[in-house]
Amino acid sequence: MKVNLLYLTGILLFIGSCEGIDEIYIPPEPEDLSACSNRVIESGLYYEVDDQTFLWGGQDTATHFEITDWTLNSCNLKKGLGREAFYALTDPDYELLSETSVNYPDTSRAVIVSFENTVKVYPYQILRRHETVNEVVDGEPIAVVYCFLADLASVYTREYCGRTLTFAVSGFTYQDPNAYDAKESFILWDRNSESLWWPISDKAVSGAYKDESMVKYNRGRWGVSTFKDIRNRYPDALVLEFIQQQKDLGPIEPTSGCNQN
Q: Fewest C-beta in 10 Å: which of 94, 141, 239, 260?
């Protein structure tokens, strides 16, 4: 099935507030932790050692995130569940929409991405369990992300400064009272540099990629729609399988960011 991208655009008008953010983000004021009343900080999930600041990532200290001089206000941290409490998908499994055993209501929403010869469907119902899907579209690495707390869906490229990154959720959430209607939202990380990224600002907020912009994938090839529209327009689409196996990531190529030698 050859996908007509102009035809696809018709249903992408449904995107509305569910799509990624385009508004200009104003960075927070410098933080004063002495004034914080924050359970992440009070519980020790945020800590300092030898003039470096960290967020707890799990029982192994090697999983902790180094956030010294990050661009977020630590007082606005909300939850700290540990690194990849919801495991991200790599090399995901699909099935034909016409053959799926899952009964998706007509009003259920999904991210749809147009490939050269097909359309792939990422149901919110499944994305809630993983929040990040690492995929390749016609040779271009992308990340499909969905944050239930903020009702935020977006598709980003995974290529930055000549390196392909693998994204996942950090386990931490953040709530800026002056951004995106003060909705709580997830913080992502990349497994290559261990930088943290905040999709509300579309920026890396710590690590080797700090201040690097998150780049959205081609807007003409992805969007959000309902299953009623998807069934009517794309009966031969592939849909993310409901049960996904957690797969071996294989070797992760480390990177020191855009300033690497």
A: 260
Q: Is 33 among the domain residues?
A: no
Q: Lowest mean pLDDT of 10-14, 75-79, 143-147, 250-254, name the range.
A: 10-14
Burial class of residue 69 (count of CB atoms within 10 Å of its CB; 0-12, 13-18, 19+): exposed
Range of the structural domain that residue 162 is part of: 5-22+73-240
Number of domains composing the chain: 1
Q: Mean pLDDT, the chain, as a whole number?
A: 87
Please state whether the predicted TM-score (pTM) of the whole model is above 0.70.
yes
| CA-wise closest residue to 92 among 143, 147, 148, 156 | 143
Establish if 256 belongs to a structural domain: no
